[in-house]
Design a protein that fits this description.
Length: about 450
């Protein structure tokens, strides 16, 4: 059975409204990003995009994607029909114990099935010029490959062709977030478009082929339906002036990190949160199974329970201000950290308190030593809230959860914080770990 292209399945985008229902199996998949330099002067790099057919109950219906799909059980049989790369080298490149070549085979096979481009070499080592074959013969070859089983293997043996997996360069690795209806572990490859081959849609899974610059594919004017992973890869491609520059850049990558977005709620519904975005660490802590119960934006009046002993109340428009209620130990006593100055906002925070607020504390730059930051220690009924100084600021440490409440501790200062801290709760923004946020990989250096 034909499965959806891996490019749009790897991450939620417009499909993020799906509801989780237990543990999802993760399928391995591969996608091939086909590149060329535009024929018109000054167009630079162009990428092949396919528009999927409109289908009911298909979360990716009508999306614009790269060719791709799941690894098939018959793909390992093609290993002996690959040129320039064996399984050991492919597995080393993809950092898998074995069967790395399966991904390369799947990428080539899916590209042929969905876009009509076949990365195969003849006996002389040149890419097969499919356009030289009669149209009926090309269609018959493609239809045969779409039937699955060993059709592609027999085709290569009969014609003396070998899959040109050595033309592919490993580029990106994405894993669908927990909680999505279908999960895919997808490897993305880039390759230069083969000469004497013209892409065309199969009219069943795909209905249109488009050569677009990354900027055109991303433009609001064109209004393509793009999954999160497709959009992010197109943004990466914008960093390269030519197709060959992208191929060279992929070849130079020493490692390709796995990227797994998460899903969270906002005013417009569920939304993917990428690893380099501010809410990522918090969403991973509060909703590891992807139920979609977290938020990717902080809004006025939003109350979030960060743990059984910590509540965050955000007040104010735009960036907002975070106040924290810490407590819930024996006696249900609570401390309020960084109360808002506005009376209405303060009333909102007090109303959110699960118990009596006995202490009101403020982070800041006042004083010169821990002794100046009273109280030095607050006993919250078996929980310990300690005053500490970090980077010249007065902060408060909930020792049992290793969480530091800090007014303005910037990421550059995190390395100088006390070592017994796992989480930082700032006066603005989301909960973060000590580690600095992951940055998107745009172009190898």
């Amino acid at each position: 059975m034909k499965l959806p292209a891996a490019a749009q399945a790897a991450n939620p985008g417009t499909d993020a409204g799906a509801k989780p229902a237990g543990v999802r199996p993760v399928r391995t998949a591969a996608s091939l990003i086909v590149l060329r330099d535009g024929a018109a002067s000054g167009r630079g790099l162009e990428v092949l995009m396919l528009r999927r057919a409109e289908k009911e109950a298909d979360q990716n219906s009508g999306a614009s994607v790269f060719p791709g799909g799941t690894v098939d059980t018959h793909d390992p049989a093609m290993h002996a029909s690959c040129c320039g790369l064996d399984d050991a080298a492919a597995s080393l490149r993809l950092a898998v114990p074995a069967n790395g070549l399966d991904y390369y085979v799947a990428a080539v096979r899916e590209c042929f099935e969905e876009a009509g481009l076949l990365f195969a070499s003849d006996e002389a080592g040149a890419l097969v010029p499919l356009d030289a074959l009669p149209a009926s013969e090309r269609e018959a070859l493609r239809h045969s490959a779409e039937q699955g089983s060993d059709a592609l293997l027999h085709m290569c043996r009969e014609r003396g062709w070998r899959l040109a997996v050595d033309r592919l360069r490993y580029f990106s690795h994405w894993l669908t977030p927990p909680g999505m209806p279908r999960r895919f572990d997808t490897r993305f490859f880039v390759a230069l478009a083969p000469q004497a081959q013209t892409p065309n849609a199969d009219t069943r899974e795909t209905v249109e082929c488009m050569w677009l610059t990354p900027a055109e594919a991303l433009s609001e004017a064109r209004a393509l339906k793009l999954m999160n992973v497709t959009r992010r890869i197109l943004e990466q491609l914008q960093a390269f002036d030519t197709a060959q520059a992208c191929i060279d850049g992929a070849q130079a990558l020493r490692e390709v990190p796995m990227i797994m977005p998460r899903v969270a709620n906002g005013k417009a519904g569920r939304h993917p949160v990428n690893p380099w975005e501010p809410a990522y660490a918090e969403v991973g802590r509060l909703d590891p199974d992807g139920h979609g119960q977290c938020h990717h934006t902080l809004e006025d009046g939003l109350v979030v329970r960060l743990s059984p002993h910590v509540l965050r109340v955000t007040t104010g428009a735009q960036a907002g201000h975070n106040s924290y209620l810490v407590g819930g130990g024996e006696g249900n006593a609570w401390a309020l950290i960084d109360a808002p100055k506005d009376d209405g906002a303060l009333a909102m925070v007090r109303a959110a308190a699960p118990g009596e607020i006995r202490w009101t504390l403020a982070t800041g730059a006042g004083g010169t030593s821990d002794a100046d930051a009273a109280p030095h220690l607050v006993d919250l009924g078996g929980l310990t809230l300690t005053t500490v100084r970090a980077s010249g600021e007065r902060c408060f440490l909930l020792e049992e959860e290793k969480t530091l409440f800090s007014g303005s501790c910037a990421p550059a200062r995190i390395a100088r914080l006390p070592q017994d801290i796992d989480w930082i709760a700032p006066a603005q923004g989301f909960l973060r770990t000590r580690a600095e946020p992951m940055q998107p990989l745009l172009k190898p250096t």
